[in-house]
Amino acid sequence: MTASREQLLEVARRAALAAGDTILKVYSTAFDVRLKADNTPVCEADLASERVIVAMLSEAFPDVPIASEELVEAEGLPACSARFWLVDPLDGTKEFIARNGEFAVLIALIEDGTPVLGVIHAPALGITYAACGPGTATRHKSGHPPERISACIPSRDGLVVIHSRSHENSRRLAEFLQSYPVRERKKCGSALKFGVIAAGGADLYPRFGTTMEWDTAAGQAILESAGGSVETLAGTPLRYGKPGLKNDGFLAWGRQA
User: Fold this and answer.
1) Which CATH class is domain 159-253?
2) What confidence score (pLDDT) does residue 169 get?
3) Spatial contact of 188 and 165, defined as CB atoms under 8 Å apart
4) How far is CA 119 from the centre of its chain?
C-alpha cells in the first residue's frame, strides 16, 4: 500500500523532532567544529542528527532515496529518482555555533521536481513548521497545539523583508530593494525565514547567492502550502533534482495580491 502524504509527513515530522533532541544534547556541550571541503562548518550535531533522520526515513520508506547534506559530502550524490527525500540535518550551523537558537532540521519530499511536503524544526526555539499541500501549513510552538498558518498579502505601507543573518550581500540586497517599497527589514538565520513568511510575519526573502536544494526544499513546500511562492531570479518556479542539487538565487514571496 502506498503511503499518503499525511503519513509521509508524520514520519518526517517525528524524524525531525528526534533529530532535534539529538542536536540539543550536543548544543549543551563544548562541541568541536571542523571545516568541510567547501569551507562550511560541520560539527557532531550535524552528523548525529543525520544518522537519526536517515535511519527513521529508511526504515519507514526503504524504496525512497535520501539526499542528505553530510552523506553527500562523504559519499557523493545518490541516484535520485522522480521521488526522493532532501535532508539538511542541521541548517544554520553558523547559528548553532553562535548559540543564537536560529538553526533548524529540514526534511522535504520531492516528486517530479517539486517539493510536496516539508518540515522545519527549530529545536532550540521550540517551533516546528510543517505542510503537505495547499492549506495544510501549520506552526507548532512547544506547549501549544499546532495552528494553521497562512501567508499574508503585503501591507500598502510597504514590504516586510526578511534576509539572512550570516549570508547577506548588503550591496546586492540594497540595490534590489530600491525597486520596492520597504517598511521593515528583519534578519533571521537558517530556513526559518520561510516559516516566518508562511505564518504572515514577513513578505519577501531575497537570496542572491548559491544554495543547495536541501537548504530550500522544506521551506518552499511549507511556504507554497501557505499560499506563498518561491521562484528563481528569472521568475520561474524553483525546481529540484538539478545537476549537483544546486540553486542559484531565488525570491520567496508571501501571498500575492
Assistant:
1) alpha beta
2) 62
3) yes
4) 7
| Rounded Cα distance, 159 and 185, in Å | 8
All three cell numbers of 45: 550535531
Q: What are phi and psi of 232, to 5 degrees?
A: -70, 170
In angstroms, how far is the first alpha carbon of the chain from the final one? Answer: 41
Q: Any idea where the domains of the chain sit in the sequence? A: 5-148, 159-253
Length of the chain: 257
- The DSSP call for residue 83 is E
Name the helix (H) or strand (E) containing 187.
strand 182-188
Answering whether pTM is above 0.85, one says yes
In the chain, which residues have pLDDT < 70? 1, 39, 166-169
* Architecture of the 5-148 domain: 2-Layer Sandwich (3.30)
